[in-house]
Amino acid sequence: MNRLLISISVLVLVLSCQDQPKKEKVETNDKSNHWSYEGETGPEHWAELEGETHCNGNFQSPINLVNYKVAEDLEPIDLHYSEKTILHDVANNGHSIQYDFERGDFLIHKEDTFHLKQFHFHEPAEHLIEGVRYPLEIHLVHQNESKEFVVLSVMAKEGNNSKPFELLESYLPIQKGEMKLIQRPFDISQNLPQNRGYFSYQGSLTTPPCSEKVTWIVFKQAIEVSLEQVELLKYLMPINNYRDEQPQHGRAVYSTSF
Ligand SMILES: [Zn+2]
């Protein structure tokens, strides 16, 4: 009789374990949650928080774009953006709202191909343009086969409602750790300013591991988005998800003549 009871209990236990609902949580970014934008895990502590970072290096980003040289030979960026490229998903990784692309869009820089991987937001902006901090900065992250980056930076100011932002924000809100599939074509060039003049310099990722292998291209002209569109992003991201200005350390900053 006892033996029968034990067998039944074991069976019940096994069955109840099998009934446990499976975890649906989306793992967005493995180690990336060790750091934050404030307190003991804030930017001053990034270098000590994770083993191999460049966060204390001499070629860090963002910077104040102020002491620049106008270079007549700087040409417009060689962009190959298509309206057919598929926007794969949007994710809230706890640091920013990020939209990920399938392979398609790319740019050519110094005869090398850099594929557009994703874009995300900082609010307010990280780079300063002649000391001015815009309310929003968009980073379009491109990478080549050697894992080097070209990041295009687009500043946004408050103004008219942006149609492309309407589409992007139709997938919001999205909670921390959540990812939503989009899987529809999106033309990223709609989010670029009309004037393609830019500043350029060598720097780093502005988040850990702060890798110093980034060519920064910051457009001079800002795009317009409405106050409501800025506010929706702000509500979903950590407050002030920007890193402070880093020392220039003698690096050259170039500006196009247009
Ligand atoms: Zn960024």
Automatic annotation (TrEMBL):
It comes from the Bacteria. InterPro entries: Alpha_CA_prokaryot-like, CA_dom, CA_dom_sf, Carbonic_anhydrase_a-class. Residues 33-257 form the Alpha-carbonic anhydrase domain. Gene3D superfamilies: Alpha carbonic anhydrase. It holds the Pfam family Carb_anhydrase. Keywords: Lyase, Metal-binding, Zinc. The keyword Metal-binding applies. It catalyses: hydrogencarbonate + H(+) = CO2 + H2O. Its EC number is 4.2.1.1. Belongs to the alpha-carbonic anhydrase family. This is carbonic anhydrase. It comes from Psychroflexus lacisalsi.
